[in-house]
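anyone seen this seq b4? input:
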Amino acid sequence: MDIMGMALLDYQNGKYTEDIITYSSLDEQDIIPLPHFFRRFHEMPAIEQKALKLCRGTILDIGCGAGSHSLYLQEENFEVTALDNSKGAIETCRQRGIRNVHLENFYDFKGERFDTVLLLMNGLGLAEKLDRLDRFLSHIKTLINQNGQVIVDSSDIIYMFDEDEDGGRWLPDTKGYYGEVEFVMEYKGEKSDPFWWLYCDFNTLERAATANALNCELIIQGEHYDYLARLTPK
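predicted toks r here
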């Protein structure tokens, strides 16, 4: 069930009547406003603006969604490839005028290398779980040129857990990393299958990058435990 693609195409084709609802393993229900995916550069948060300004050379936009980042870069005369495994998202990108789109799973996309790989809107979440981060970074390395870069953002969701008197946090009694969150999306009465999304604190990302022969540089921190990082080959 391509929930995201259905919603994006509806908005693109003037059929916007409701937003996406998300349910998470953190016992939270949230709303994702569809207009958020169609914002222009001046409407984007500072982290995304900074990320786009750091792009250079040929660019791969992984998990492109409605293509707002790719569209901006294309308008700035960059050669950009928009990649997503959502048929609806890719069709939305086509309708918005993005010239180079690719419908494929991230791990199946092979054979091309880029100067910049872009992973925005908590793009690190595509790794799904912490024990899959090494595999994720290993594949990322096959997509960048020798002097290439990966621009990625994520969030440390430690703030979502209760604080004790000593300033520590009460984490759930589970075997997994606290930043592993399971989601279900709902749109117009249809629900997605459950899927995992990884929110990774910077120190954990830095250790994983080092283990995969990547430099990890903190570029900017956001206002709410979010951050932008740059990975480059050692």
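The longest strand covers residues 144-155. Residues 3-159+169-233 form a domain with the Rossmann fold fold (CATH 3.40.50.150). kinda curious what u guys think
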